Amino acid sequence: MLPRRVYWGLAALGTIVPYTALGIFISRHGPDPVELTREAFGSPGAVFFALDVILCAVTVLVSVLRDTRDRRIRTVVTAATVLVGPSCGLPLWLALRQPANRTEHRT
C-alpha cells in the first residue's frame, strides 16, 4: 500500500484540479447551474465523462458506507465525495483507512 502522504497529496490534487476548472467556468458564465449542466451533458464525450464521475462517486460512497465503521470517517469521506468529487473522496478514504503508525516498506 502507498504511504499515507501520497493519498493526502492525491486528495489535495483531487480538490484543486476540479475546483480550478469550476472557477474558470464561474469566471466566464457566473454561478449558473443550468449552464453548467448543459455543458456537462452537451456532447456524447462530455456525457461519458460526467456519467463516469457520477458512477465513480456512487461506487466510492457505497464502498465507504459498507466497509467503514468509524462514523467520522464515513461523514468526512461522504462530504468530500459529494461536495468535491471522487477525485478527492477516494484518496481521502484510502488515507484515512490506513493505520497512522504503519511502517512503510518499499519493494
From TrEMBL:
It comes from the Bacteria. Keywords: Membrane, Transmembrane, Transmembrane helix. InterPro entries: DUF2834 (IPR021362). It holds the Pfam family DUF2834. The chain crosses the membrane at residues 7-26, 46-65. This is DUF2834 domain-containing protein. It comes from Catenuloplanes niger.
